[in-house]
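We were asked to recover a plausible sequence for a given structure. The inputs and outputs are reproduced exactly as logged, with field labels preserved.

PROBLEM: sequence recovery
POSITIONS: 313
GIVEN STRUCTURE:
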């Protein structure tokens, strides 16, 4: 009988929680510790089913709209941000609001206000229906148009000054093409200092691309509604390596591993690190593995918590 060499598992780094997700989850955890449940959270705090379920088990109540939150209760805005209309509704309902919007999303909202004030039409690059996009569009509803693709850019008809902004979790390579098309269509185009794709999205994409190029199969841990996680899978697949998004180890189909000697493994910015450990365990259960880490960048960024939850805990 021939001995198979151990299967190699290439762990992409950075992976899993980013600073914005760490902060958002910690806000809800501290509120639960300090005030007890129920703590109402508008929308999923981050787009990960395991994070949501574990906070629910501790007393968080996730709602779609603030109308579902009792008058005067504590409510948390999710990491993806909200429009000014939602902030106004919270004031009308006298809610005690804790804002878990990632500071890097807030930065895009500030840019939207600044560009709108100078009279620009703002082309927002992003995915229709995504919560972050709904929040950002709400900053200047009459002055913003949403585009997703180069074809959308070609179809634009705008008179007067034009600037652009982007969703924070887009594919870096695809977005560069859309921005190039915008520059061609609107030579006077202005934008943010660089695009708004955040450091965490960028780093996870660089790492997963490198790893995918060295692997026969890529697994990304994350939920299906997580934009940054889906972008990682698409990017891995663009290198020619089959890639799958899994919520956890239970979603791995052993058939994917047939003939695979190197597995690339990562996790989106909203996927807890323990889930990656569980996937490694599941791979180990299928045969001997040799684990190595490919580090594309080192992340040291951390965001401060809102004052209301900073004390104690
Ligand atoms: O869908 P997504 O990638 O925007 O969000 P997710 O909650 O998966 O990851 C964190 C990213 C945020 C909050 C957007 F900046
Ligand atoms: Fe913030 Fe980027 Fe994380 Fe989104 S992915 S929460 S913008 S750090």
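RECOVERED SEQUENCE:
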């Amino acid at each position: 009988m021939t001995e198979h060499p151990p299967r190699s598992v290439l762990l992409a780094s950075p992976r899993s929680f980013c600073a914005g997700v760490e902060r958002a989850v910690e806000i809800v955890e501290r509120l639960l510790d300090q005030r007890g449940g129920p703590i109402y959270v508008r929308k999923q705090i981050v787009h990960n089913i395991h994070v949501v379920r574990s906070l629910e088990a501790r007393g968080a109540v996730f709602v779609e709209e603030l109308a579902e939150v009792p008058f005067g209760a504590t409510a948390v805005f999710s990491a993806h941000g909200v429009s000014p209309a939602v902030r106004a509704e919270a004031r009308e309902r006298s809610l005690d609001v804790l804002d878990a919007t990632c500071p890097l999303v807030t930065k895009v909202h500030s840019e939207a206000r600044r560009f709108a004030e100078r009279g620009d039409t703002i082309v927002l690059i992003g995915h229709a229906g995504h919560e972050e996009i709904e929040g950002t569009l709400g900053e200047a509803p009459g002055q913003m148009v949403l585009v997703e693709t180069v074809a959308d850019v070609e179809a634009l008809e705008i008179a007067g000054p034009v600037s652009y902004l982007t969703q924070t979790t887009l594919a870096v390579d695809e977005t560069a093409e859309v921005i190039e098309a915008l520059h061609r269509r609107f030579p006077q185009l202005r934008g943010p200092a660089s695009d708004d794709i955040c450091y965490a999205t960028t780093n996870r994409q660089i790492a997963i691309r490198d790893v995918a190029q060295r692997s026969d199969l890529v697994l990304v841990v994350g939920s299906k509604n997580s934009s940054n996680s889906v972008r990682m899978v698409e990017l891995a697949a663009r290198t020619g390596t089959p890639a799958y998004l899994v919520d956890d180890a239970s979603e791995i189909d052993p058939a994917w591993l047939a003939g695979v000697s190197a597995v690339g493994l990562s996790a989106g910015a909203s996927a807890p690190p323990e889930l990656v450990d569980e996937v490694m365990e599941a791979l180990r259960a299928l045969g001997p593995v040799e684990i190595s880490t490919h580090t594309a960048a080192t992340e040291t960024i951390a965001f401060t918590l809102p004052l209301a939850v900073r004390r104690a805990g």
